[in-house]
Design a protein that fits this description.
Blueprint: E1 21-30, E2 38-44, E3 55-56, E4 59-61, H1 80-87, H2 94-112, E5 117-118, H3 130-144, H4 150-157, E6 160-161, E7 167-173, E8 182-190, E9 204-210, H5 212-220, H6 228-237, H7 243-252, E10 257-258, E11 261-263, E12 270-272, E13 295-299, E14 302-306
Parallel strand pairs: 1-8, 7-10
Antiparallel strand pairs: 1-2, 1-4, 2-3, 2-9, 5-6, 7-8, 11-12, 12-13, 13-14
Helix pairs in contact: 1-2, 2-3, 5-6
């Protein structure tokens, strides 16, 4: 699957304009007994054109199958109206709104092996049993290869998907300078007990749990690659001491669309975020607010968050 991408491997100077495709990304989190919570990151195959070698969250584009009306019977009482309300996008078609939640569930399962679903008793899926884990590993591959649909998966196992476990967090649109563009909704989700995320070993070659501070330090040192949306998101996560605090803030915030504005720098390229004082795109411009970076620039081959 093509992933939500802000920049291509060469720095993102694409040709022409393209309407962005809907996509979903999941920021998978886990609390620890001691120390800050962690976020799950996976490394994309270095040969991929978009974000080759970068560490990313699970995610990808909205497929037609994600908006299959048959799936409405596989999600309990969660409705399209709930999806639109939570996304804060009243003009979004109902099928697309609900489909984004299901795309987030599907991509998290395909890429990370984590399934946000419940059994008929309401218990979250537990993959601790080796036989169960092996069976779902087969489902994961079949789904990835389009030999299995989401609806078929839940019918086989008697499950109900759990979109209520996804908390909409952010909304990024790839800048117009890119030849491939995505309209990506970011969701928060806790790792369910009894599940262990593992990268798919195809498009994703490594994976690791990292605290936000560690991930930022690794990027700054050039030991991992964080592209601008991931970098900015992790910078924001750094300000929350635990997932409960983060989730509470996410549920009460207003989600504002982030359409980065590209500009040239001494090293070649950067983006301004909507609350940057020099941002000029009127449709998405925000008032300045304290704290955090306002732009992301390439310095010495590393994306770095900066304020002006």
């Amino acid at each position: 699957m093509e992933k939500d991408s802000l920049f291509s491997k060469n720095g993102g100077r694409g040709e022409g304009k393209q309407a962005p495709r809907d996509a979903a990304t999941v920021i998978l989190l886990r609390d620890r007994t001691e120390g800050p919570y962690e976020v799950f990151l996976m490394r994309r195959h270095r040969d991929q054109v978009f974000m080759g070698g970068a560490y990313v969250f699970p995610g990808g584009r909205l497929d037609d199958a994600d908006a299959d009306p048959e799936l409405a019977a596989c999600i309990g009482g969660f409705r399209a109206a709930d999806a639109k309300r939570l996304l804060q996008e009243t003009d979004l078609p109902e099928a697309a709104a609900l489909g984004l939640f299901l795309a987030a569930i599907r991509e998290t399962f395909e890429e990370a092996g984590v399934l946000l679903a419940r059994d008929t008793t309401g218990r979250l899926v537990d993959l601790a049993d080796p036989e169960t884990a092996a069976r779902f590993s087969t489902y994961r591959l079949e789904l990835h290869e389009e030999r299995l649909t989401l609806a078929e998966l839940v019918r086989r196992e008697g499950l109900i998907f759990a979109p209520d476990l996804l908390i909409p967090y952010a909304h990024w649109i790839t800048p117009e300078i890119e030849s491939r563009r995505f309209d990506t909704r970011f969701f928060l989700a806790r790792l369910p007990e009894g599940q262990v995320p593992v990268h798919d070993r195809m498009e994703l070659t490594e994976s690791s749990w990292m605290t936000p501070a560690f991930a930022l330090a690794e990027n700054e040192a050039g030991r991992i690659i964080l592209m601008p949306p991931t970098l900015k998101t992790i910078e924001e996560l750094l300000s929350f001491s635990n997932t409960a605090q983060l989730f509470a803030a996410a549920r009460s915030q207003r989600i504002r669309t982030i359409l980065p504005e590209a500009f040239r720098t001494a090293d070649g390229f950067g983006i301004r975020l909507p609350h940057d004082s020099e941002y000029t795109l009127a449709a998405c411009k925000q008032l300045p607010h304290p704290g955090g970076s306002t732009r992301i620039v390439m310095e010495g081959g590393i994306w770095k968050a900066r304020s002006v």
